[in-house]
Task: inverse folding
């Protein structure tokens, strides 16, 4: 055999995906990304994600599981957990004890949360104290437009707040030090130049017209909030207010091949896995899309992946199909296959030294399979079985899905985790499989439209299991 042929036969095929698609596929990719960009512009918090997702599900004939007495093959249902976490399923033809095909992503993203007593005044400027959520590089969050999203629970009602997304609305920002006076700051380590307690958001400067009050600007802000929402300072204690980048997600590059926008970790996998589920009508095994909250802070809490609410949903499915009995859920989960759909680091040419080029994910090379995450020792990784990785890659190859496989950076450079280990703990086969991202956890993350579309195609094939 000629060397060229031999190379083609024996080498791992790795290539830029854009080179092997036709005009029709290119159009599909761009159309899909346009809808995706709309989605991430509307869904900037986990609560907003759940709202948008329910709209999508309803438009595709999914029903709230609580409205159904019993379920049969082909039925489409969803379950909402506390407005922040949602599961959707298409019931399969096979006995549910044979397990499910699950794709799990998360819909929370790094951001700035308000502290319980956030508002203060300093030199006649009003500011909000924040407590950052998830692993951020703090210096990236100053001097960018921020919008305010969330809920405030008062004595007798729950108020929803969303300010800073519409063109006519004001935005907020954290004022960094000017370079002229930053000599000392610039000598600090990047990590210490902006500290957690420096992430104070400027929210106003106009004093309330009064003589005998000390904090007139603070009073003015509280008065505005009271008139608009009926809230007082104490109500912040029972609120969940998130400040997120107010920038809109957009096409990036002269060729518009990329998407830039906030919250793509992990809404890119959430959106693609959800859209894939809405295209499923008949499946052998029950297909489930689970969208978790709290992944960025360790998956704890009753809306995180560790919560028993997930098992409650599975029990509901069992009860309404084959009937539930002791031990059945364990059997189901042991027989279940899971893709942990979470983003991974794409190779960033600005920082070549941190990558081991043979084992990285590349932008535009398709969805990425990550056999194990974790840190230097593989610590914390569930490490998928070769058999299950084999099952998934064969499925992808059979269906012409553009996929690549990687680790994340050189050994010892850092590390990360996903929800994979939690489902693996319950006995399921789990593999991490998601879209490569540049500038992950920054206010403006970058993905490739080619990879997004291949994630959608890959997830569809996985739900079908053929
Ligand atoms: Mn993630
Ligand atoms: Mn993350």
Result:
């Amino acid at each position: 055999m000629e060397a060229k042929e031999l190379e083609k036969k024996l080498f791992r095929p790795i290539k830029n995906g854009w080179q092997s698609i036709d005009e029709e596929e290119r159009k599909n990719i761009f159309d899909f990304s346009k809808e995706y960009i709309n989605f991430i512009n509307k869904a900037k918090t986990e609560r907003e994600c759940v709202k948008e997702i329910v709209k999508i599900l309803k438009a595709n004939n999914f029903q709230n599981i609580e409205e159904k007495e019993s379920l049969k093959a082909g039925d489409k249902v969803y379950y909402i957990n506390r407005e922040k976490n949602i599961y959707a399923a298409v019931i399969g033809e096979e006995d549910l004890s044979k397990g499910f095909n699950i794709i799990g992503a998360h819909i929370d993203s790094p951001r700035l949360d308000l502290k319980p007593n956030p508002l203060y005044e300093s030199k006649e400027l009003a500011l909000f104290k924040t407590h950052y959520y998830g692993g951020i590089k703090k210096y990236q969050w100053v001097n960018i437009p921020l919008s305010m999203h969330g809920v405030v629970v008062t004595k007798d009602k729950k108020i929803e707040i969303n300010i800073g997304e519409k063109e006519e609305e004001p935005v907020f920002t954290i004022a960094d030090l000017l370079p002229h006076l930053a000599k000392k700051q610039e000598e600090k380590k990047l990590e210490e130049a902006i500290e957690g307690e420096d992430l104070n958001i400027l929210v106003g400067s106009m004093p309330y017209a009064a003589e005998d009050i000390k904090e007139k600007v603070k009073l003015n802000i509280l008065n505005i909030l009271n008139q608009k929402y009926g809230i007082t300072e104490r109500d912040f204690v029972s609120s969940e207010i998130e400040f997120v980048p107010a920038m809109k997600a957009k096409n990036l590059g002269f060729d518009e091949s990329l998407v830039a926008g906030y919250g793509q970790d992990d809404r890119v996998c959430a959106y693609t896995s959800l859209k894939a589920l809405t295209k499923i009508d008949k499946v052998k095994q029950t297909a489930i899309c689970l969208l978790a909250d709290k992944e960025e802070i360790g998956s704890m809490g009753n809306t995180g992946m560790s919560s028993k609410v997930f098992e409650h949903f599975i029990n509901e499915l069992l009860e309404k199909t084959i009937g539930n009995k002791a031990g059945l859920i364990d059997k189901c989960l042991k027989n279940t296959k899971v893709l942990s759909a979470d983003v991974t680091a794409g190779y960033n040419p600005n920082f070549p030294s941190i990558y081991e080029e043979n084992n990285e994910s590349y932008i535009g090379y398709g969805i990425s399979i990550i056999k194990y995450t974790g840190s230097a020792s593989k610590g914390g990784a569930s490490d998928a079985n070769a058999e299950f990785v084999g099952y998934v890659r064969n499925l992808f190859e059979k269906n012409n899905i553009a996929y690549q496989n990687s680790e994340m950076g050189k050994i010892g450079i850092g590390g990360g985790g996903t929800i994979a280990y939690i489902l693996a703990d319950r006995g399921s086969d789990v593999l991490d499989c998601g879209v490569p991202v540049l500038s992950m956890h920054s206010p403006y993350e970058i993905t490739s439209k080619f990879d997004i579309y291949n994630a959608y195609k890959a997830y569809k094939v996985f739900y079908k299991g053929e």
The first strand starts at residue 63 and ends at 64. The mean pLDDT is 97. The two ends are 33 Å apart (CA to CA).
